[in-house]
């Protein structure tokens, strides 16, 4: 083969190889960009779905706890307007019992007076009974601190462990002021155990573990 022909073949092979490499690099780049975009879109979709699921769960939990605030506000308004007298135990106990009937998530509802004497109605879920009680919390530092922290309007207090019931409770307090004089606070109580049970049903169709945090510590956990 003549040198001229050999030169032409060499150039042809070089050009073909270069073009092939360029096509390979271009195809690889397009494929890489496509994979990156697909991963980005997938992660974005997963993040959006997760945000929507969390948002829906939060709304469900808020709706689950709202009746505690509604009932506490309702009872406080009845006292403030003089429509019910806490000293009339028969009528007042009926009002408190009605609050439990209207909101099964509430474990107990009570009026805690300034002297920390409480008129309460509680629910015994195991026996399906309603118990009427009087409590004296004057020597209880936890209740004393909780009452001192109550501000204007409804407010959720920190979780409280009650040794006598072997449970941790959340409490919603609504201050009662009649004719400018503090009468105490209506307190609606929800057990963390009951709330955890409800949380376990929220978003049951989604994978993952649902749990309740108080600060950085787990307050209750579900599957």
Q: Layout of SSEs?
A:
Blueprint (H helix, E strand, L loop, with lengths): L2 H78 L8 H14 L5 E5 L4 E8 L4 E8 L4 H8 L6 E2 L3 E3 L4 E12 L2 E11 H8 L11 E4 L2 E5 L2
Antiparallel strand pairs: 1-2, 1-7, 2-3, 4-6, 5-6, 6-7, 8-9
Description:
This protein is α+β, with helices and mostly antiparallel strands and 223 residues long. The protein has a domain at 71-197: PAS domain (Beta-Lactamase), CATH 3.30.450.20. 48% of the residues lie in helices and 26% in strands. It has helices at 3-80, 89-102, 141-148, 192-199; strands spanning 108-112, 117-124, 129-136, 155-156, 160-162, 167-178, 181-191, 211-214, 217-221. Strands 1, 2, 3, 4, 5, 6 and 7 form a seven-stranded antiparallel β-sheet that branches. Strands 8-9 form a two-stranded antiparallel ribbon. It is rod-shaped. The N and C termini lie far apart (79 Å). The model has no long low-confidence stretch (mean pLDDT 78).
User: Tell me, what's the shape?
Assistant: rod-shaped
Summed over residues and divided by their number, the pLDDT gives a mean of 78
Main β-sheet description = 7 strands, antiparallel
CATH topology descriptor of the domain at 71-197: Beta-Lactamase
Q: How large is the share of residues in beta strands? A: 25-35%
How far apart lie the N and C ends? 79 Å
* Stretches with pLDDT under 50, minimum 5 residues: none
CATH C-level label of the domain at 71-197: Alpha Beta
Going by CATH, the homologous superfamily of the domain at 71-197 would be: PAS domain
Number of strands: 9
CATH architecture of the domain at 71-197: 2-Layer Sandwich
Please count the helical segments. 4
Radius of gyration: 33 Å
